[in-house]
Amino acid sequence: MANDLARWQFATTSVYHFFFVPVTIGLAFLVAVLQTTWYRTGDPEYKRMTRFFGTLLLINVAIGVVTGLVQEFEFGMNWSTYSRYVGGVFGAPLAMEGLAAFFLESTFLGLWLFGWDRLPKRVHLACIWAVSIGSMLSAMFILMANSWMQHPVGYKIDKAGNAVLTNIWALFVNPTFVWGYAHVILASLVTGCLVMLAVSAWYLRTRTHVEPFARTAKVALIVLIPTIVIQLSVGNQLGEIENRYQPMKIAAAEAQWTSCKPCSFSAGQIGGGANDKTPTQIIAIPHLLSVLATGTWGGGVTGLNQLQAEYQSKYGPGNYVPDVFIQYWSMRVMAYLAAAVLLLALWGGWLIYRGRLHSARIFLWLSIWAVVTPFLMNTAGWLLTESGRQPWIVQGLQKTVNANSPSVSPTDIWISLSAFVLAYIVLAAADLGLMLHYSRRGLADAYAEAAEADEKPAGAVPALTY
Amino acid sequence: MHLHTIWFVIVVVFWIGFFVLEGFDFGVGALHRVIGRSETERRVAINTIGPWWDGNEVWLIVAGAAMFAAFPGWYATLFSALYLALVLVLLALFARGVSFEYRGKRESARWRSGWSWALTIGSILIPLLIGVGLGDLLQGLPINRNHNFTGSFFDLLTGYGLMTGVNLLTLCLLHGATFMALRTTDGIRDRARAAAGRIGAVAIVVNLAWAVWTLVVIGGGTVPQPTQIFGLIAVIFAQRLSSSGTDGWAFIASAFAIAASIGQLFIALYPNVMVSSTNHAYNLTVNNAASGHYALVVMTVVAVLLLPVVLLYQGWSFHVFRQRLTTPPTSSQ
Lengths: 466, 333
Fold this sequence. Notes:
The structure holds two protein chains of two kinds.
Chain A: H1 2-41, H2 44-78, H3 80-114, H4 121-150, E1 155-157, E2 163-165, H5 168-172, H6 175-206, H7 210-245, H8 247-253, E3 265-270, E4 280-285, H9 288-294, H10 304-315, H11 324-354, H12 361-369, H13 372-387, E5 392-394, E6 398-399, H14 410-455
Antiparallel strand pairs in A: 1-2, 3-4, 5-6
Chain B: H1 3-35, H2 39-47, H3 53-70, H4 72-81, H5 83-103, H6 109-139, H7 159-183, H8 186-218, H9 226-241, H10 247-269, E1 272-274, E2 284-285, H11 293-320
Antiparallel strand pairs in B: 1-2
Helix pairs in contact in B: 1-2, 1-3, 1-6, 1-7, 1-10, 3-4, 5-6, 6-7, 6-10, 7-8, 7-10, 8-9, 8-10, 9-10
């Protein structure tokens, strides 16, 4: 009971946290691009857009930071057995994250936010790039830690039975980490682009401020097109890596109960859960699964039944098959939405080429609604990778069921879970309200602030930013 | 010196960094409604910590992460033992962290007042609760042979823990007042100075009582330790200097007062990191809670390379925004 509740709490808080993280990483990069363009061209529209999207960025950073604290505390609070067991390895990237990334991100965000009229232009521009780099570095260290749970490397088990680090470099070159990190950064850029595109499209459809928002829509699309193309191939590569180290995860994602060679890809199915090992496939595309999972035309995928038998002989009795329903559908939600975003991006690229972006009403309408897709894809991606590791908390080393805190009762977790859910609903309402409020009315403020800052003599009294 | 002793010192440095830096943020947050009379003055008060509070809070994250990396056993036992208390701390951190960014984003008086209260309550609760937790490290909690906490939430409310919390809260309020006096002008500065004087008087008594209680807990007899004397002198200086117009020195004194309190607590704790009230044989120590040697070497290299850089750019950030804030002549907002 306590274990299940702790899992629910960790899942809820991480999914929620990861609504905000990719927006931060993506928008920080795009705001830095906008400000660089302003710095280079001197075009004041870019400065206004920098401030406008900068405000949206800050609203998100606030929640990303506080919900991130929960994540860091939860390892010890809910998973003390896990923390004691792996802290000697897993703790190192977390500490590095704080020292190398969080300090950088937060200090320079303060400098950027308050430094508009204090710092030389070039230094101020460097500040937003430092924020962007800091946010990407923090994702790097946390992915390094997470990848170690997927595919533990560079450790040994000491005589007290705990994991201790033996080779830090192994964590940096862990293939699960390298490809997983690329996947997350690209996903964050896609998220940032789609947020920026949606806001720009909303303005373009209202035919107000067409001039500046046609530019930001263009910037978003120009970054989005190559990003989503690369993302599809990186995602594919990550699937191959996971198939090598966590075959259960990929077999479950394809609801492949029996081994196959060559393997066809199931585009959709009815049934296929733990109690239905012969799902009705709606469309099966020959050879596609072989290509996706192994990178070869006729490669084989080991089925869940065979893997289960292998794991039982290796690790003892137990169920080693993750929730197939979650795996199968989260993979498809991610892949199909990514394909849809690719089509949208290419359409946008064609409209830019024809110079008709600002007046393409249907495209703009779709672009507004496309803003939900990255959040669905990101959530599906984490469900796929985290639920797919079950029953393990650290693949092959420790089971989730053995990892929670013995001293924390179900009542404790009911209290904390309710408190967090309630607080998160309030935060989400405040965040969404402010985002919409600012997306619609913030432009006037951005103009006024920019004008005010321009008029101010050097060495004037610092502005009240908050 | 053993690597795990070095890491104990590093963890303490992170905690001192957190309370010295974020300490004045807590004080400003808790006092901004009292010292700022009008909406503009309250904004001035909040903006005195505007560029830094977020970076200051990272010291807490790093202190926690350093405990995780260098002393997994300590991190695991402490965080699971303090479970419900930490839930409260996290809720307070939410309220506070979001309030900075959200408070000024709407014109509505209700919206602002709501976030203002969130800031005030959050800023009071966090140092108080963390103080209780730190005091419990020394006072001892029911911990069994397997280093698992066996008590309930109410076992966390030890007398000494509460006293430690009150001591840290009082020092944070003092520190916030001296900081506001240093960063503002005119009426708001005068009120901050007066507040520092009054809070300082309370802080002297509280700090003295806490020091005596610490001696009782550690069974140290009647001879005060050097850090205790140093800490008390710093509090007295902060209180006296706050009315003398030398805001900078008052602030430095309150910073030393906080550093001395945190330092004293951990000095008294060493070589334990968490005392078991069940049986002293079950105490967590720098030895039995530490990571492997190789991990500590790696972390030492990382800390030695990165910490000076962090101090450099955080210091630069303080330098950039060193100018005092004043209320704008046309108080339109």
